[in-house]
Design brief:
Number of domains of chain B: 1
Distance between the termini of chain A: 84 Å
Radius of gyration of chain A: 72 Å
Strand content of chain A: 15-25%
Helix content of chain B: 10-25%
Low-confidence stretches of chain B: 1-8, 17-27
Strand content of chain B: 35-45%
CATH architecture of the largest domain in chain A: 2-Layer Sandwich
Radius of gyration of chain B: 19 Å
Oligomer: heterodimer
Shape of chain A: rod-shaped
Chain lengths: 748, 190
């Protein structure tokens, strides 16, 4: 148990109630003791001490509680002001009546006890005592005279026997109860008493003897057991004989019963009154002490009760205020202890019901928020993984949401543009202005659903986007915005175009190749049959005509074969190839044939071995070298550069092959369509060289780009993955994804 | 005003009560001056002299008719060398002293005696009470005497509990009423 908890328990209501009960019991017993209860009177001091200690403890408890209250008030603890105010009010209500009652009780006690004592009674008792004493004095004087006479008669008697007889006689004559003759030291010489049971005569004490030895007489009244009072008279017996020592005669005479009773009555009344008079102040003190203790204990208990009551009254309000603060702070699970069935209880119950309902509502809201959040996360995940770009905007055309693909397709970080009007975004990024313009135009037209195709010209080339827009439903008064889904279809269009060209080539090859052989055979037959028969003039004509037919047929055959190789998928024969070695072989082959054009090799020794079809790679190199060769006809220092480079990108290892020349470069108007069939600037070219290059690269999972160099000349860059054709089982089919990638990499 | 005087006395009483719990007992009035004790058959015979002197407040109370009980407490101890002495028996002799206003005498009645002695002065009465002359203290049951050393414990005090109830709070509070001697020990002659 903690120290503070222990103190709180010790200063709590239970110890105070127990202490109060003990104190009330003790004060009751003390009161009983003060009212002459013999039983409690024996424990008076203990009771008094218990009360004083109890008062001390109670004071300590109250002080501790008041200190705590003040401390809480200073610390501005909730409810402490009210508690303190109630406490002050209760204390005032208890102290004022108690003080008034105490004051008047003390006054009443003082006056009441004083009224018991009457001056006249006191005077009368004093007078009675004086009268008694005077009367007794007279008797004493008479008895002294009688005793002196008796002593004189004793002086003349010498024999012991006669002395005893004389004393006996004198006792009877004088009516004494006892007559004794003593030596001056108090030794008995002779004695006579009327009580036969009394063996030893009553001896005067040393003080009386001393007085008698000095020659004085002694007479005094003294109590005599149950018989009332008796007179003790003692006188010295002076002898006429000088040699005889001093003797003492003592006479005891009981007072007459009437006198004795009267004297005793006066004595007891006087003594009682004197005692009472003397005890008046202690009596007052005792009563006032008891009253003061009762008042003090009552007052302290009242103060304690005031503390407890004020705390109890203020507790529900304090709890309510604290609970309200907690609710305001967002803690809706606050439940307060119900103090009872009174109005406070009803109030606290209502508060508890309210917080419970708020908490339930809050829980429902949180659940809905969680669900909405989950839904949103789900949608965001879906959107993020969509291959289509998605963006939405509100009715005032401000950008709200977008996905990562939108950024990728548009080439813009749309996060920075969120909340901005589309027109502003379009102005900030000029290359996508047609895209946003198309959207805004469609929105202005007010169509609920629309579809548009947009062509963008940006650093990545000419790209075609297809956009589909849908108006979002209104939410109450809020007008719904739009959601636009868009895809880049450049690669798709390219693929469609390639497929179309392949079909054309296939049909062309099929339709043209078949009649060529009969044409060629027929021409050769005509030549063979009629060349020798014709005159010389016609022979030359026939010879030239048939030769031309044969040449043209041969030319058409080679063209048809080229179409055929472009259109018909070739079976891949992948193997490990050292690309550098292959390049060196092809360069060596062309070196002499293309003089004076120089071939310059810059090969990366770290280039890995790739998996590819050797023959088809050789075809790529042949096509590209032939293209450069054709372009360098009129150059003064023609150079064809073949470079390789090892690259690593996105955990993928590539070999980059660049074939460049210092010729005139690609015509700008064709640069977007260089890899399409039949696109050529050469007079005798069939326009299939680069198309076939692209096709082979695609089949190897690579990509090809073509561009003009800044310093002049054309440059074709091919990237071939290290894995290459081995991981692509059927490269003969068109892979749309790779097509798209290839298309995107095409740089104008 | 009587109320305020009483209140101040009440305060003094409280202080005195607290102090009396710790303060040593006052010994200015009563004192054991001498004592002789010896065994005689199955009892201890004690003679001695006790000085008794009343304070002014007590004298006033006595003259005003308040009887005083003076207790002479005897205790028989067996001396033990290494531990505290063993108490074998305890006796109390009570003497009541009161003043007879009519005769002006001081009356002394010893407990167990019907005889009341009267004295003309208070000093005589107190001297009588304080004079122990062959007081016999018989052994009670269970007390057996061996050859060891014995001592007699002696103390005299005014019995406040026999005072009238009204007077007791004042008596407890006032040092003038706390009359008692130190507890003395006297060797007992065999």
């Amino acid at each position: 148990m903690g120290h503070s908890k222990l103190i709180r328990r010790l200063t709590g209501p239970i110890p105070a109630i127990v202490l109060s009960l003990l104190l009330v019991s003790a004060i009751f017993m003390l009161s009983a003791a003060a009212q002459y209860s013999e039983f409690f009177g024996n424990f008076y001091s203990i009771l008094l001490l218990v009360n004083v200690l109890g008062i001390g403890l109670l004071l300590l408890l109250i002080t501790a509680n008041v200190y705590r209250l003040i401390h809480q008030f200073r610390a501005r603890v909730l409810g402490s002001r009210l508690t303190l105010r109630l406490f002050g009010m209760f204390v005032l209500l208890a102290v004022i009546p108690l003080t008034v009652v105490y004051y008047f009780s003390v006054q009443f006690l003082n006056k009441g006890i004083d009224s018991w004592f009457d001056v006249r009674i006191e005077q009368a008792l004093n007078d009675a005592l004086l009268l008694g004493r005077t009367s007794l004095e007279a008797i004493k004087r008479d008895r002294i005279v009688e005793a002196q006479d008796l002593a004189a008669r004793l002086d003349d008697t010498f024999s012991d026997f006669a002395l005893i007889q004389l004393i006996d006689e004198l006792r009877e004559q004088g009516g004494f109860s006892e007559v004794t003759l003593f030596t001056q030291n108090g030794r008995i010489i002779a004695s006579s008493g009327e009580d036969p049971d009394k063996l030893v005569p009553d001896r005067p004490n040393e003080a009386i003897l001393a007085k008698l030895r000095e020659g004085q007489s002694h007479a005094n009244m003294e109590p005599a057991g149950d018989s009332g009072m008796q007179l003790r008279v003692a006188v010295p017996v002076f002898s006429r004989m000088v040699s005889r020592p001093l003797r003492i005669v003592q006479v005891l005479q009981p007072l007459p019963l009437r006198y004795s009773k009267l004297a005793e009555s006066v004595q007891s009344a006087f003594a009682e009154y004197e005692k009472l008079e003397y005890l008046r102040k202690p009596l007052k003190f005792s009563f006032i002490l008891t009253l003061s203790l009762v008042t003090l204990i009552t007052l302290l208990i009242a103060v304690w009760a005031a503390i407890v009551s004020s705390r109890r009254l203020a507790a529900p309000l304090r709890n309510l205020a604290e609970g309200t603060r907690q609710v305001a702070g967002g803690d809706y699970g606050t439940q307060l202890p119900v103090p009872g069935d009174d109005e406070f209880g009803v109030l606290v119950k209502s508060f508890n019901d309210m917080t419970q309902q708020i908490q339930q509502a809050q829980t429902a809201v949180r659940r809905s928020q969680r669900e909405a959040e989950s839904q949103r996360t789900y949608l965001e995940t879906v959107l993020a993984h969509l291959s289509s770009g998605v963006l939405s905007f509100d009715s005032s055309q401000r950008l709200r949401t977008h996905n990562a693909t939108a950024d990728q397709v548009l080439g813009v970080e749309l996060d920075a543009e969120k909340g901005k009007p589309l027109a502003v975004v379009a102005e900030a990024h000029g290359h996508i202005e047609p895209f946003f313009r198309t959207i805004l135009d469609a929105v202005d037209e007010g169509e609920a659903e629309w579809q548009r195709q947009v062509v963008l010209l940006d650093p990545r080339g000419r790209r075609v986007l297809i956009c589909r827009g849908t108006r979002l439903p209104d939410h109450g008064r809020r007008r719904g915005g739009y959601v636009v889904v868009f895809d880049e279809i450049t690669a798709l269009i390219q693929a469609q175009r390639d497929a179309a060209w392949a079909e054309v080539a296939r049909r062309l090859a099929h339709e043209i190749k078949n009649p060529l052989t009969p044409i060629q055979l027929s021409a050769e037959r005509i030549r063979h049959k009629y060349l020798d028969r014709l005159p010389d003039s016609d022979r030359e004509t026939l010879d030239r005509a048939t030769r031309t037919i044969a040449e043209q047929v041969e030319s058409m055959k080679s063209m048809v074969n080229a179409f055929s190789s472009y259109a018909q998928p070739q079976r891949m024969q992948p193997e490990n190839i050292n690309i550098n070695q292959l390049i060196q072989d092809v360069a060596e082959l062309h070196k002499e044939a293309i003089r004076p054009i120089r071939i310059q090799l810059t090969l990366d020794e770290t280039a890995p071995t790739i998996v590819a079809d050797r023959g088809r790679l050789r075809q790529i190199l042949n096509n590209l070298i032939a293209n450069s060769r054709d372009a360098l006809h009129h150059c003064s220092d023609p150079i064809i550069s073949l470079d390789t480079r090892c690259m690593r990108e996105r955990e993928c290892e590539y070999v980059e092959l660049t074939v460049s020349d210092n010729g005139p470069g690609f015509p700008p108007e064709l640069i977007d369509r260089l890899f399409e069939p039949y696109v050529t600037t050469k007079e005798k070219g069939n326009g299939l060289g680069l198309a076939i290059v692209k096709k082979i690269v695609d089949e190897h999972g690579g990509m090809v780009t073509a561009q003009n160099r800044n310093e002049g000349g054309a440059c074709v860059t091919i990237r071939l993955p290290k894995a290459g054709a081995r991981d692509l089982p059927d490269r003969s089919k068109v892979d749309t994804r790779i097509e798209q990638a290839g298309a995107k990499e095409k740089i104008a | 005003m009587p109320a305020s005087r009483n209140a101040s006395r009440f305060g003094l009483l409280l202080i005195a009560l607290v102090l009396s719990a710790t303060a040593p007992a006052a010994t200015n009035g009563f004192a054991i001056e001498s004592a002789q004790a010896r065994f005689e058959d199955d009892s201890v015979i004690v003679s001695g002299k006790i000085g008794l002197e009343l304070s002014e407040e007590v004298e006033t109370a006595l003259v005003k008719g308040i009887p005083l009980d003076i207790l002479i407490e005897f205790a028989l101890y067996e001396d033990r060398r290494f531990i505290w002495d063993k108490r074998l028996g305890r006796w109390v002799l009570r003497a009541e002293l009161k003043y007879h206003a009519l005769s002006g005498l001081y009356l002394v009645t010893l407990q167990g005696s019907e005889d009341t002695k009267s004295f003309t002065t208070q000093r005589e009465a107190l001297r009588y009470v304080g004079t122990l002359s062959r007081v016999s203290l018989p052994f009670t049951d269970g007390v057996s005497r061996s050859n060891g050393d014995y001592a007699l414990g002696l103390r005299v005090r005014l019995d406040i509990r026999s005072l009238p109830l009204q007077l007791r709070p004042v008596a407890y509070a006032s040092s003038a009423w706390r009359l008692k001697s130190k507890r003395t020990k006297w060797a007992i002659q065999n």
